[in-house]
Specification:
Blueprint: H1 2-12, E1 15-22, H2 30-42, E2 46-48, H3 59-69, E3 70-76, H4 82-93, E4 99-104, H5 110-113, E5 122-124, H6 129-139, H7 149-170, H8 178-195
Parallel strand pairs: 1-2, 1-3, 3-4, 4-5
Helix pairs in contact: 2-6, 2-7, 2-8, 3-4, 6-7, 7-8
Length: 205
C-alpha cells in the first residue's frame, strides 16, 4: 500500500518543464497547434494536452491532475474552454506553483472574452505560425535556454513535415488524436535538440 502511495505521489509531482496546452482541436487551428509544439520544445518544455486523457470517466479529475503536474499552461482564447477556469482557480489556491499565459489572434479582444482576467498580459500571434513563435519568444523570455526565432522556424518546419507523415501512416486526417499527439511531441523534441544550439547538451526525460 505504501509503495502504491509513493508511486501516486511521484506521478502527481509537479514537473518544472511540463507545459499544458489549452487550444482548439480543429483543422483550422492545426498550423498554430504544430507551432505551439515546435515552439515549446524549442524552449526545452514538454507539451501536454487533454488529448492524452482517454475516455470520459472522471475526466475532470484527470484534467486537474494533469494541470497540477505542469509548471506552465498556455491558453489560446480563439476558443475559451473549461481548462482556463480551472487554471485560474488553481493559481489562486497554489500561488507561485503555476504560471499561465494567454494568447490571442487579435489585440485587446481578451477583455471581451473574459472580464475576470483583468491585469493578465496577452500575447498576440495574429493567427500565423510565425506570429505564434514570435509571441512565445516574448512569453518565455525568462527561460534559461533561449532559441532564436530562426531556430524555432526550423523546428516548426520539421514538425509540420512529420505531421503529414503521421497522417499518411495512421490513415487519419487529424493530428488531434492521442497517438498522433504523442508522436508529434517526440518529433518536436528530437528536432529541437538537433536544431536549437542552446539545447544541444540538454538531457530529455
Amino acid at each position: 500500500m505504501a509503495v502504491r502511495r509513493r508511486a501516486a505521489s511521484r506521478r502527481s509531482r509537479r514537473q518544472p518543464d511540463a507545459a499544458f496546452l489549452n487550444v482548439p482541436y480543429d483543422s483550422k487551428y492545426e498550423e498554430l497547434f504544430l507551432a505551439f509544439l515546435a515552439g515549446l520544445s524549442g524552449f526545452a518544455l514538454i507539451p501536454h494536452a487533454t488529448l492524452e486523457i482517454p475516455g470520459s470517466r472522471r475526466r475532470l479529475d484527470r484534467i486537474v491532475h494533469l494541470l497540477r503536474r505542469c509548471r506552465y499552461s498556455f491558453h489560446d482564447l480563439s476558443r475559451v474552454e473549461l481548462e482556463l477556469g480551472l487554471v485560474v482557480a488553481l493559481a489562486k489556491t497554489q500561488p507561485g506553483r503555476h504560471e499561465w499565459l494567454v494568447f490571442e489572434a487579435r489585440s485587446h479582444r481578451i477583455w471581451k472574452s473574459l472580464s475576470d482576467l483583468a491585469g493578465t498580459d496577452e500575447y498576440v500571434h495574429g493567427g500565423t505560425p510565425l506570429g505564434l513563435l514570435r509571441a512565445l519568444t516574448n512569453a518565455l523570455v525568462r527561460r534559461r535556454r533561449q532559441p532564436t526565432l530562426a531556430e524555432l522556424e526550423e523546428v516548426y518546419r520539421d514538425v509540420r513535415s512529420y505531421a503529414s507523415e503521421i497522417k499518411r501512416r495512421l490513415r487519419t486526417r487529424s493530428v488531434f488524436e492521442a497517438r498522433a499527439f504523442r508522436e508529434l511531441v517526440a518529433a518536436a523534441q528530437r528536432s529541437a535538440t538537433r536544431r536549437v544550439n542552446a539545447l544541444r547538451n540538454v538531457r530529455r526525460p
